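An example makes the point: we print one protein in full, the chain in one-letter code, the fold tokenised, without further comment:
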Amino acid sequence: MTTSQIADLLRSKGLKVTPQRVEIIRFLQTNRVHPTAQQIYEHVLRKVGSVSFTTIYNTIHVLEQMGQIRKIPITETTTIFDVDTSDHGHFVCEVCGTVHDVSYNVSLQTPGLIKRTDLIVHGICEKCLASFQEGKGS
């Protein structure tokens, strides 16, 4: 999305176009790291110099309402944001905390229309597992 498109998006929701809000959207689009609000805040603070958590949360909320991002609760205390709004799941490494996208197929018989599915798988990623096995064999 260009800066002009980002500005139009913000204006369409009644938000002022500020460097902070533009940087939030740029960060989410270019860094597919499943960031937390804290990580977004720290990035924007480094890039722009000042930002409030209120700006972060308001912008994230608007983007979520517009279907531009998905809010994904990973644990009871951690929520990440994903710009990939397609149906996919997430694998969370319990050692390093990295979140990976995963594909899955589910066949469900439901009494109504499914609008969204969430799959969160917790485990140990290949990199951490390899490190653990190397340390064990020494």
In short: The radius of gyration is 18 Å.
